[in-house]
Amino acid sequence: MLDISNKAFLDGGPLQFSGSSNASIINQGTIHTGSGGVALIGGQVINEGLIRSDGGSINLLTGGTVQLNAGGTYTQADQDTLQNGISQTAGLIRNSGTLRATGALEVGGEVYLVSPGGTVLQEGLIAAAKQDNAGEESGGQVVITGDALELKSATIDASGADGGVTVNIGGGFQGGDPSIPNSQSTLVDAASVITADAKNTGDGGTVVLWSDGNTSFEGQIYA
Fold it and tell me: Residue 178, Cβ neighbours under 10 Å: how many?
């Protein structure tokens, strides 16, 4: 697992985790939090169970260094990892279970699976939604990226009653978002469904699929 000093943790603010461990984190049970959110950070991160956050964000992260802001949201890998690609500790993120994040617009409803130099395999369900102070519900942000990215029979739902938001798979728009490491291979099979609908009113969201190398999409997108 990546580490942070006791002092840096207690001081608050952005939390930067780093280290050379290739240890694995495997969840086969249920993790349920409030606004604090969930962050699993290690050489390999595998979820086969349920991770749910009511008011927070869910982060499954690998890489030489990762940073979380004060609200628990993933910021980005360190620039060395982004520029050099393969990291000593970058390994595998695999979600074959359920990641479900809902929360207030300012802090929650975000799911990040990020392995800048490694592999991300998404086979389960990701659902993200946000609610503002007026009670309107929009989709939450979903970011999935790694050097090699594969969605197999995956369901990703960033829809909301009053609008969808953004799903980024493999990078930002045209690969130009510096905060999202670009994938080198993004493969989505025919059984995968990505949704960013406005269910009742408002506008649908945005879905971006990208890689700097091979991009293959056979699934369905609704926005």
Answer: 10
